[in-house]
Amino acid sequence: MMRLPLFEFRAPRTVQEAARILSGEGANAMALAGGTDLVPNMKRRQQVPRTLVSLRGIEALKRAEFDASGARLGACLTLTEIAEDARYRNGYSALAQAAAQVATCHIRNMATLGGNICLDTRCAYYDQNYEWRKAIHFCMKKDGETCWTAPGSDHCVAVSSTDTAPALIALDATVRLRSATGDREVPLASLYQNDGINYMLRQPGEIVEEIRLPARKGWKSSYWKLRRRGSFDFPVLGAAAAVKLSGAGVVEDARIVLGAVASQPLVADEAAKSLLGGPLNTDSIVKAAALAGRIAKPLANTDFDMTWRKKVTADFVTYALRELRGDDMTAESMSLGRYLF
Questions:
Q1: Contact 170, 240 (CB under 8 A)
Q2: For residues 71 and 239, what is the distance between their CA atoms, to the nearest angstrom?
Q3: In the chain, fewer beta carbons within 10 Å around the N or the C end?
């Protein structure tokens, strides 16, 4: 049995109080939302904070507000609340689909939107218990010096495995970060970098307070996920797509984002631009999917063969775009255990 290390538990009632505690404790403290990622990591001694600052008692982080300008989502909204809320249909469907495909219903009842955004990167060598990792002399991501996936690499190549981040980036999301010294709002895409250890440019002591989505009138969005089992598993590939169509069916704007094929979500700008100014037809979909597949950089540190994962990237982008075109994707969805909205 893997046991938690000893820690101090703090339960602030406001974001400001939580930020002050994190600032005062420094590197010894971590924020705790649903705990579905952090607590198992603590049991494996991947993360060993001396103080946990719970965000679950902060009501301001649980609000979801929608108006003509878009949506403001508290970071402690659970994934179940997002997946089951009809307000996320149509333009925001990619987010609801991504939330609905995270793990199991039991985990989604606890896991939060902010927690999934900040999800630790994963690797077959890193996501083992302490004794297993010690036996191979640890890895670069925790306690060691060598990346066992790519021994010649000067940086960690652990994989970004968040489902909601690619969907949110495709929806042009921004995040509001709160610290003891103030707050700032930044595009979600700019928070990530391609480094398995320092994968997020969130400053120490900053709390993801709110996710903001612009109004998506005239937009459609979709998220498709590859995993071995129809539930529970982390993604080994995620494909989020969003398009804005004119009344005549011409693509006026588009965004395509890949997940779980690098240490950060990858924005497929060239693929999205190839769709602009024309209809969403078979030729344009095939071209965009091929361009998106080129930027995928999967490595042999998660499930399935990495060459095959790169090959099927174009297929999953195709599924997402075909759904946005209005195709009946029932057969594909059933075979992948996926939720269609």
A1: yes
A2: 22
A3: N
